[in-house]
Amino acid sequence: MAEPSAPESKHKSSLNSSPWSGLMALGNSRHGHHGPGAQCAHKAAGGAAPKPAPAGLSGGLSQPAGWQSLLSFTILFLAWLAGFSSRLFAVIRFESIIHEFDPWFNYRSTHHLASHGFYEFLNWFDERAWYPLGRIVGGTVYPGLMITAGLIHWILNTLNITVHIRDVCVFLAPTFSGLTSISTFLLTRELWNQGAGLLAACFIAIVPGYISRSVAGSFDNEGIAIFALQFTYYLWVKSVKTGSVFWTMCCCLSYFYMVSAWGGYVFIINLIPLHVFVLLLMQRYSKRVYIAYSTFYIVGLILSMQIPFVGFQPIRTSEHMAAAGVFALLQAYAFLQYLRDRLTKQEFQTLFFLGVSLAAGAVFLSVIYLTYTVALYAISAVYFAGVMVRLMLTLTPVVCMLSAIAFSNVFEHYLGDDMKRENPPVEDSSDEDDKRNPGNLYDKAGKVRKHVTEQEKTEEGLGPNIKSIVTMLMLMLLMMFAVHCTWVTSNAYSSPSVVLASYNHDGTRNILDDFREAYFWLRQNTDEHARVMSWWDYGYQIAGMANRTTLVDNNTWNNSHIALVGKAMSSNETAAYKIMRSLDVDYVLVIFGGVIGYSGDDINKFLWMVRIAEGEHPKDIRESDYFTPQGEFRVDKAGSPTLLNCLMYKMSYYRFGEMQLDFRTPPGFDRTRNAEIGNKDIKFKHLEEAFTSEHWLVRIYKVKAPDNRVTLDHKPRVTNIFPKQKYLSKKTAKRKRGYIKNKLVFKKGKKISKKTV
What we know:
With 757 residues, this protein is mainly alpha-helical. Helix content is 54%, strand content 5%. It has a 5-stranded mixed beta sheet, with helices on both faces. The chain has a two-stranded antiparallel ribbon with strand order 1-2. Helix 27 links the parallel strand 5 (531-533) and strand 6. Helix 2 (21-28) crosses helix 21 and helix 14 (222-242) runs antiparallel to helix 15. It is globular and about 135 Å long. The chain starts with 5 loop residues before the first helix and ends in a 54-residue tail after the last strand.
């Protein structure tokens, strides 16, 4: 066995002596591959040529690439496990339950899909929503979430693994968090290196910005959409680098899944065209870019229009116009490149000047026209309002990737300084293609070609103390980040809104289950076709848990219908009763937090009901009527008489004036608003209390049916005809015959004789 030369021995000793050798092996390698350049560099350093690796598992692990692959797989698996486990606080503390409001509709839709099939789901008309209008579910939702959960449920049942569809919905988002980590790793590795990709995967697995929408029980679109977002970006970068139609078609399929899952697909259809536009400005145009974007735009456009809820929006709405504009620009640019190769320089300049002049004139006339109709500002406002929805959630993956790149560079600089000086970094395998095509380069981000003199400069090594201090500081930052993420996830994002918890002074926990208690009462004690009126926040929960018909819900597609409910809540009982009778309302549900100090009740939301109702009914409802002359919104005696007599106020505080919560406060003291209510003598004429939960959090009232006969407000009519004499009864013990009062008298007529005739 040949002995290694001196430089090789020194290099091996430095690797073995460093405790971060495994990490730096990942940080210094691009994709974990060692091309022919590695052997050339090894020989140039004076080392012997490496022997062929032995076959088998031990032979694969004896190579650095084998250990790197095993270490990468282990880190990704641990990141997936950490992300999945950190999202289970709500399940451990409470139970496996759907959270919030929108997830209840998603769960109800998924249950319908699993029970009746895909085509029944697409054609499902939900008669329990928006009574009496109803809702066509298949054409008003992004079906990707429901189809994903239904497909997983079908696969598990096919494998004879009995799982309820609710459990699939609860654990879907934590499961997809691991896929998001893998897709982020792939994207960051493609843009930078493998070490940064592993750090990015670990960051996004536990970052609170992503966990807030993907905890167990949060069965919402964002739980799977962030994975689709990252994976689409990865496939796009792969498509541009290779110019392969295969990778581009994979990118189109991933984009199609993203469109089916979330409305945030507009970020993709705007960012990818922006990327192509910047490449054109930087003179990085190549056939790879042309093939990738032309295929992506055409196929992606056709696929996205297959979603019923999207329809023809990709060719009509403003947020898709940037993609169409860049597509036209790319075709024009490619056509100019084609002409430049076949025309003389003078002819090309003349044609180019003419084309630019015509384009500038068309743009100028369009701007003048739009300015004249005052539509330019509207179009730009609609565009940015549609694009910048939920910016924080889409910003989270980018922050994780940039942070991972920063940490990777710091570790590489402070831990790999000696190794870099002894063994220069290996050129990437893609450099050979760059050398063959120096004019059309699409390098990795951050790859800057150094001057020959800069490459020949020797870097001075850092002292061990500086390296140790910086390393410890970086590790402390990472540990603090992990602790912070765990604490935020545990305390801020792991409490289902349908189950509340409070803590006593001794640390014991009280569970407030009023919501489910009230919904279960509705399900068990009301008619199957009963109609429940409430504010739109609770529509999905009533339909999902109580299985009863609602007037409005969280879809909020019909503002006039919501305003009608707000008008009923804001009016007095008599006016509200007319509205409720016109809508066939059987029960009214309100949320009241004055007993336990719950700040999310309907009294705190009441002004929004007034404002929405005023927008549709300005003659009947005015917001100023519910404030005091000093402009205050008060529920005590100084409150507005309109407020103290409206239906919402009366339903919330009915019988509350008789309740004294403790000896320090008077009866009827509202803990949420810290005030004694102003109207304690509340009585109903058209409603009656049907149910109040244990902690008075949910109150349900039954709407009385109208009387069979409407009572008259005035006295019955009295005649002024009096009899001339007072008749007394002539009935005695001996004379049994009675006397008929006002007996008709008949006069006997004369019979006409024949002689008279």
